[in-house]
User: What shape does this take?
Amino acid sequence: MKLYEILVIDDEAQIRKLLEITLKTNDFKVTEAASAKEGIHLAASVNPDVILLDLGLPDESGHDVLKKLREWYTKPVIILSVQSSEEDIVKALDNGANDYLVKPFRTGELLARIRSSLRGLPKETDPEIIHVADLSIDLSLRVVKKQDEVIKLTSTEYSLLMLFIKNEGKVLTHQYLLKEIWGPGYINQSQYLRVFIAQLRKKIETEPNRPQLIVTESGVGYRFISES
Assistant: This one.
């Protein structure tokens, strides 16, 4: 069994120790960095499977570190920070973070977020038919089924669903979704997005008014969750 390697970039020794114990107990390899400079160096030399990044580093803003990492590092980055404002969360997610946890956090939730991000790593071969929750998607025919019944999706709804599936477990901001699906000219059309999310939920959710797949992250965006 492959042991996934996690790089922790955090200047707080107690946090690093807590994460080291938690992660190693759950069969992860752990590498640690106490500064932005050391973290970027280790990310390049170790090429970890996931990076846990603090925003409040002593030598450089975590936001700037994230931007530098995203110039070449394509694997998941999860932010761990005491900064809990909507502005900081949206900024980090728009800069390429896969997820954001506010300190103090529950270790069980962190492990769930890590496992979710690892499921999104590219496999050696991509299947023509993928299965997510009770949905099956034939990529070659662009046919979506729910419990073996075909669901008729518009091209926009299909593109939106595929964007969620490719980013399973990751919070996607309103601006990101609007830009990716409709283009830069629509980034302020949040109401437009809500209409399409509602339509998609009616087609793929068992209970559209209590969505389990496309979950709202209040004030930020949406997260696609395939497992309860």
Remarks:
- The two ends are 25 Å apart (CA to CA).
- The chain has two domains: 5-119, 129-224.
